[in-house]
Amino acid sequence: MNDIVLITADSVRYDYIEEMEFLSGYQTQSGTTVGHYTRPSLAGLLSSQYQATMKSAVTGPTIPEVMSNAGYTTIGLAPSPQLDEVFNFNQGFDKYENFVDAGNRGSNRREILGQFDILRKVYHRFFPPHAKMSDLPTDKAVVEQAVEQFNEASGPRFMWVHLMGSHRPYGRGENAISRSLDRKALFSPSSLKDSEHQEITSAYEDALSRVDTVVEDLLMGLDGDPTFIFTSDHGDEFGEEGYYYHQPQRRRTADKLVTVPIVSNDVSLTGDRCSLLDIGPMLANQAGTDPPEEWNGIDIRSESRSYTLTIAPWHNTASLRLATDDYTVTSTDGRVSMTESGADIHVEKNEQAEEVQERLQDLGYVE
Asked: Is the peptide bond preceding residue 226 cis, with omega within 30 degrees of 0?
């Protein structure tokens, strides 16, 4: 059985994949995210189930559980409070590192107050993403640890690595967009000058190039010749419909947010339509095991996907985006529920530990 590596990088749009020269040398296909920001999207990916996205938490059986049952050593490195163990992202991993320190404390009251725009502006002034990202390890540090753990593990090995270098503000120090420009794009996008728009997109392109280099370092440092798949949790908006970045509280499912690249060196990607839910079945078959019946994804190498569904949950409400070859239907800000195996599943607000709450606030997901 071949080693398998799944790499996800934050906020990578499909139409910007050419900025990642190393990855552009491999087979690339567009994919549709199952969620609109990190937690519901990657919960859906690792679970290959819509209910994980609805709940914004991982639901078994997970990809690492399936790999573990097939005899794989499973390793996960995910430096984001969105991917904390409290949301079950460690489920099925022999080793899981989230890099989230339990230092600062937060409160649910802030999250409620953060729904008001004026309070979000006040919060952003004192806690911009520049300071927030500085507490996370660099992609280089994450990759160094990933290479060490992978090479020390007994085979066959499955490893998932999430990279944050492409997340707004698209760099650290001088590489990042300025705090004032970030604030302007977030709260007054219509007032941006063409030169300021270009400054943002150029910083984004540079961030993708740096992530590309880190992915190359990761793959070159691993023992053997593993099969790998690269994708992203979501994209970002740059004013195409009046908004910048990804703002989970808006529950948007715009094309630029939900269309991401899927890249592989060994898995044959076929078909015109692919959901991130489909990565699980592809990897399971690659490992020589059957995908669980509970999974909603399909192996698009042998089956054809007729539609993709993106769910954008936030505080008991969700938007939906259903796309086929002929049409796209979007339902915005509705009360959404689903029935699976006789059980009703609703969009929920997750309760999390106070230290996790604080880190989510630091990245701008909770305020």
From this structure: no
Number of neighbouring beta carbons within 10 Å of residue 55: 23
φ and ψ at residue 148, rounded to 5 degrees:
-60, -45
d(CA 311, CA 236): 16
What are the angstrom distances between the C-alpha of 175 and each of 55, 208, 239?
Answer: 35, 12, 21
Which residue, 169, 146, 20, 24, is CA-closest to 93?
146
Q: How far, in Å, CA of 55 to CA of 257, rounded? A: 20
Confidence of residue 106 (pLDDT cuts 50, 70, 90): very low
pLDDT in tens, 14-24: 999 999 999 98
Cα–Cα distance, 89 to 350 (Å, whole number): 14
Question: How high does pLDDT run on average in the chain?
Answer: 88
**pLDDT for 122 beyond 50:** yes
Beta-strand runs (E) in 47-153: 73-77, 95-97
3-class secondary structure per residue, 294-312: CCCCCCCCCCCCCCEEEEE
Integer CA distances (angstroms), 207 to 212, 245, 333, in order: 9, 14, 32
Task: Convert the pLDDT of each residue in 236-266 to its tens digit.
Answer: 999 999 999 999 989 999 999 999 999 999 8
Residues 6+ positions from 66 with CB-CB distance below 8 Å:
92, 280, 284, 287, 289, 291, 292
Q: What angle do CA 153, 158, 163 make, to 5 degrees?
A: 100
Q: What are phi and psi of 206, to 5 degrees?
A: -65, -40
Place of tokens 């280099």: 213
Quick one: pLDDT at residue 223? 95
